[in-house]
Amino acid sequence: MKTSDFDYDLPEELIAQEPAAERDGCRLLVMDRATGALEDRVFRDIAEYLRPGDLLVANETRVMPARLLGAKRGTGGAAEVFLLRQHGTPTENRSALWEVLVRPGKRLKPGTGAVVDFTDAEGNVALSAEIVDWLPDAQKGERLARLTTPLPSLDEALHAVGHTPLPPYIKDYAGDEELYQTVYSRRESSAAAPTAGLHFTPELIEHLREQGVRWETVELEVGLDTFRIVDEDDPEKHVIHTEFYTVPERTVAAISETRERGGRVVAVGTTSVRSLESAWDAEAGAVTPREREATSLYLLPGSEFHVVDALVTNFHVPRSTLMMLVSAFSTREHIMAAYQHAIAERYRMLSFGDAMFIC
Q1: Alpha-carbon dihedral sign for residues 131, 64, 122, 97
Q2: What is the pTM of this model?
Q3: How many CB atoms lie within 10 A of CB 262?
Q4: 130: which residues sit within 8 A by CB, 6+ positions away?
Q5: What integer pLDDT is reported at residue 44 of this predicted model?
Q6: What are the coiled-coil residue ranges (predicted)?
């Protein structure tokens, strides 16, 4: 197995630069997991492929206003701080340590007293970030920054100055940032959206419930490495990123009941897959509840899936761990054939693009 086995030619013009006019009006490529047979549909048609007693499990995390654009204190030079995750436990509302990426990296080094200020719509400094240390084993120059604000809370400050980050391949999007959030998102804890869920509307979810399809959630804090391609020739040498996930007791109970009644567990997105499969307890032979535990589960062809029976997903970046995950869920040959079909049929690709249902 080589990383190049999961590569494909992605025409730049097929990378969706904005969401579909209607969330559930995008295209849906349905693929039989076992045979590779394909059908071209519209996303809301997924109701025809779900049966009473099936369980949909979605990642309810919400994208943080993690992109901060400001100026370096003292010089006024433009600077960007990108929030990855909070570091440790905050001791007060107006100050906390965060793991961050910065630009320009050469001018924002720990130990130099570098501080970046961020202003609100009125031009007042609402948030400051002092670069205080390097992160151990940092692969992309990640740093530790102390965020402080004169406002009542950091949460208020972040919403005053922060922007919703978009993937690097989406250029100059000026539309509603809320369209990069799922309609069921809750706690802000991710640096990127669980994009397979973007296609669901409240009306579609309600229609599925009326049809007898259950809906439950997990939470996985999506990091930027979700967009990272694998550089090693041998994918097994790749060190996958660590993310934090939660599988609540109600979801565990719903999975057990679904299994007892002969229904399928349908994951909405690869982050839901990683959460559910990470929560599998081999000794118990079942999924067990988890509360913000770390996972670095890496699913490659040959991996076993103990929980997930079907998958709603988007089209993924070439040579990514997500290409390997969907190939593991079906076969590499089926997935590559499906992608070639999607490209030939001019499907819209990646985060704002169309969807697949692998069942």
Answers
A1: negative
A2: 0.94
A3: 9
A4: 113, 114, 115, 145, 146, 148
A5: 98
A6: none
